[in-house]
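Continuing the series of single-chain predictions for the mutant panel. This is the parent chain; the variants come on the following pages.
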Amino acid sequence: MKKQIITTADGSKTIHFPEWNESYHSKHGAIQEAQHVYIKSGLDFRCKRHQSSSLSVLEFGFGTGLNAYLTAIYAKENQVKITYHSVEKFPLSQQEISDFNFDKILKTKQIDFNKLHETEWESPLKINDSFQLKKILADFQSFTSKDKYDVIFFDAFGSRVQPELWVKPILQNCYDMLSKHGVWVTYSCKGSVRRDLEDIGFKVEKIAGPPGKREMLRAIKF
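Parent structure:
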């Protein structure tokens, strides 16, 4: 499928799929969206709520590596030990990766971002003293794990283009993989997803969304 590199409103770049009219990140700001949805509303919320000094994160959709990169930065700055597993079926090419400018916007070293993409799939790697990454080459629909996670970033393509990724069995799998008081977050606020999460047993909150989006979902396992 044809891909285009586009610049979003906060200056950070992302990948756009013209055939779907869908992008990896919001056109209103790739970094702003990731910071708000996954770091502030998911990771930081879970850390502060339980005064966590270490936790594990599962991400559905490694994509550009932005969520993982922001998490690695958060781990180092807040001295929180984070084990991060990320599931992806279609990894990006090195050429596509080289076009991103997250390090320039965040004023970090490009080598730190490159490490995320250079690490081999299925092989855990320590990115910094507080952050260990394992990238998993798998389909969302078949992936499962015996590991328990404290936070799940659900960053699948929207249900408009990939409705099969937003179905109850996948959401149930997320619930089963979460630890007690685990937090599941996504940019979506779709009513059917919210109802399925509630049916499964989550406590679901509609909270303020990132720039350009009024609301998003956060679900907590009790």
